[in-house]
Design brief:
CATH topology: Rossmann fold
Order of helices and strands: EEHEEHEHEHEH
Number of domains: 1
Mean pLDDT: 87
Strand content: 15-25%
CATH architecture: 3-Layer(aba) Sandwich
Shape: globular
Low-confidence stretches: 53-58
Strand order of the largest sheet: 1-3-4-2-5-6-7
Radius of gyration: 16 Å
Length: about 200
């Protein structure tokens, strides 16, 4: 599934420009500069599928990626890179537009099977992450926490963080009760993440 030739499909600035539904969609969300684009690149084994930047707020649309159809057969999985939430180097009005786009997409996209919420392992869950958990729960959207940059803390700290994060999520019905720790630089956690996504696709009606 992930070794295929993935390509950029469409950047969507508003709901009117969403692409047609062709398969199961999974979305990656997280604070600005948490490493969403780097993780997507590592996930599919392509260095420049999703644009990366050290500037918070670089992703300003819903970016859709898929494997281009072959012989008219639609893709079975679509990856969505969402604008980062929290601080971004952009005008406040623009950030509000992103936030509305995110909310509308999360609540109105029937093909969305799961949201992977990325959390920087160096900092853990922040209040803005909790707000996103609340919104996903209220919308009845399944989500799973993925720790990024896990190679930048000690093994002991990572083990403690995973336990703490699971404890914070245990009363949230929409949260999948398993944490995946990843490092885009070292490939850590990528097989586990790919397997988790494959299960979501296989279980989707």
């Amino acid at each position: 599934m992930f070794a295929r030739p993935w390509g950029f499909w469409r950047g969507t600035p508003n709901m009117a420009h969403l692409p047609p539904i062709t398969g199961v969609e999974i979305a990656f969300a997280g604070r600005s500069n948490v490493g969403k684009s780097s993780l997507i690149n590592a996930l599919v084994g392509q260095n420049s599928l999703a644009r990366t930047s050290n500037t918070p707020g670089r992703t300003q649309e819903l970016n859709f990626f898929h494997v281009p159809p072959v012989d008219g057969e639609p893709t079975d999985l679509v990856i969505v890179d969402m604008p980062g939430y929290g601080f971004a180097a952009a005008p406040e009005a623009k950030v509000r537009e992103w936030q509305k786009l995110i909310r509308d997409y999360l609540r109105g996209r029937q093909s969305l099977a799961r949201v992977y919420v990325l959390v920087d392992a160096r900092h853990g869950i922040k209040p803005v992450d909790t707000e996103v958990f609340d919104e996903l729960g209220q919308s009845g959207i399944s989500y799973q926490v993925v720790l990024t940059k896990a190679d930048q803390i000690t093994d002991a700290a990572l083990t403690k963080l995973i336990a703490t994060t699971l404890d914070q999520l245990k009363k949230r019905a929409a949260a999948f009760p398993e944490i995946i720790a990843t490092s885009s630089r070292k490939g850590q956690g990528m097989p586990e993440l790919r397997s988790a996504i494959a299960r979501v696709v296989a279980e989707r009606p």
